[in-house]
Amino acid sequence: MAEEPTYDVIIIGGGAAGLAASIYSVRAMLKTLVIERQAIGGQILYTGEVENYPGFPEPIAGPDLAMLYEKQATRFGVEFVYDTITRLELDGPVKKLIGEEGEYTAKAVIITSGGEHNKLEVPGEDEFAGRGVSYCATCDGNFFRDQDVTVVGGGDAAMDEGLYLTRMASSVTVVHRREELRASKILQQRAFDNPKMSFVWNSAIKEIKGDGDVKSIVLENLKTGEISEQDTNGVFVYIGFHPINEFMIGAVNLDAAGHVVTDIQMNTSVPGVFAAGDVRTFSERQLANAVGDGVAAALSAYRYITEG
Ligand code: NAP
């Protein structure tokens, strides 16, 4: 007789998509486990303020919203485990997840492993990580009170976090590789209007230098090739991110960029396995979309379990 799985649904990743999926799954009377490798909340833990999520007319701090999601999931009976999943065995009706700490089985799996910040990959970045180089303004901004900091990138994250840093830093210099920002117009306007923010266009950081802590950056003007050095106390890197997918390579179909291929009901290439949020192909990478994806994945998992 086939082994009976421990859970109806296991969700890999405790970010917004995973928590939304867990709430819908457990409320459908499915025994539900969320496996998270670091901290419940995912990307919103690194977001100073969320102000575009419907239902919150006043901005809410990302970590506060994460706590609300966790509280809601816990209230309905979602179980949580901290572990890093390293391998998936998805053939057949019992799906097995192999983690560093244990093995888990379920009838259906929802992958919401999200993504990680890209790194600059320049000399000094690793050496000064935690000593001036950061990927999280919300976590580290306070160390830069009345200091001069640099933000790298031209997207929403760079503008959001750069604006957050203007509250404590003396100045925030944005280094961007083009002369036009990718960020939404409202964030662009706020950044341009903020007297503490300035911009270095068409430029890339070639090296981060220091003496114990970050002291300066070496910049290359990508149009003229000119090299210059600029003093700074901190470098906050926001140049996009990549999906966390190592554990599922070979187990589900991925696109060329490593995102899980899904249809609009969040079905992956494997029956009974669903993916939602930033890890899936064509994700809008917005909080509300991650939540919506998670809900769709949970409903699909429910149909898979109850209807076969
Ligand atoms: P993103 O939108 O992909 O922007 C990445 C930025 O980094 C771009 O400006 C890009 O330059 C630059 N970049 C990429 N690789 C680089 C490299 N190797 N060296 C230097 N610069 C590099 O990423 P994101 O800002 O992290 O945002 C991710 C998603 O989350 C987006 O969909 C965004 O809308 C969403 N988000 C939304 C909010 C919000 O709504 N408030 C906040 C945060 C994030 P180019 O422009 O030249 O490509």
Could you list some keywords that capture this structure?
308 residues; alpha/beta; FAD/NAD(P)-binding domain; 2 domains; seven-stranded mixed β-sheet; five-stranded parallel β-sheet; 23% helix; binds NADP nicotinamide-adenine-dinucleotide phosphate
Query: Which molecules are bound in this entry?
Result: NADP nicotinamide-adenine-dinucleotide phosphate
Q: CATH superfamily of the largest domain, please?
A: FAD/NAD(P)-binding domain
Name the structural class: alpha/beta
* Count, helices: 6
Main pleated sheet:
7 strands, mixed
**Rg from C-alpha positions?**
21 Å
Proportion of beta-strand residues: 25-35%
Under CATH at level 1, the class of the largest domain stands as Alpha Beta
Overall mean pLDDT stands at: 96
**What is the tally of beta strands?**
19
The low-pLDDT segments are none
CATH-level-2 architecture of the largest domain:
3-Layer(bba) Sandwich
The best one-word shape is elongated
What is the H-and-E element order? EHEEEHEEEEEEHEHEHEEEEEEEH
Q: How many distinct folded domains?
A: 2
